Amino acid sequence: MWRSHAAGGARTDDATAVARAREGDLDAYGELVGRYTAAAHRTAVLLGAGDDAEDVVQEAFVKAFNGLASFRADAPFRPWLLQIVANEAMNLHRGRRRRAGLQLRLAAYDDPARAADPAEEAIGDDRRRALLHAVRQLARKDQLVITCRYFLELSEAETAQVLGWPAGSVKSRLSRALGRLRERLAVPLGEEVPGA
Question: Which CATH number does 5-94 carry?
Fold first, then answer.
């Protein structure tokens, strides 16, 4: 088993740290986090997490902690953890692909209320593209709340449930996100944007 000595005393091996963490010793789990954060981050970056690597690593450590009860005591901790990191990175990719697909579908959405006039349709397509581009430029949480409320047409309560946020956070985040979206759209769409 892995054991090293650091200033201030000996560090425990992985098996001992895992056993202690299973019993609720957060310092022992903190030791594992400190020991494997760099490897986990490297793994996330190499698997394409990019700017989201920190989030992937954090989520992986949380899932690993919650899954310690099912971790086999005779198995090495590092590969088990890195597998969780890899799964989180793949989940990130799947989420990105789903969002890209949704955005493409929204861009091609055929609104039956639209005029059949080709000029009107072209203007509508340009507006949708401008809207999607502006939404993509917003912070991630702003994108999520706008997508849930307006693109998916969820209520505030449903949005809160889907995002796991308090209802008040949805309302305030949505208000700020719409303000930012109006600012981004004010130039391309002018007076046609409500509140612009």
Answer: 1.10.1740.10
Q: What is the dotted CATH code of the domain comprising 109-192? A: 1.10.10.10
From-to residues of CATH 1.10.10.10 in the chain: 109-192
CA distance 143 to 131: 12
Q: What is the pLDDT of residue 75?
A: 86
Which residues in the chain are classed under CATH 1.10.1740.10? 5-94
Instruction: Answer yes or no: pTM beyond 0.70.
Output: no
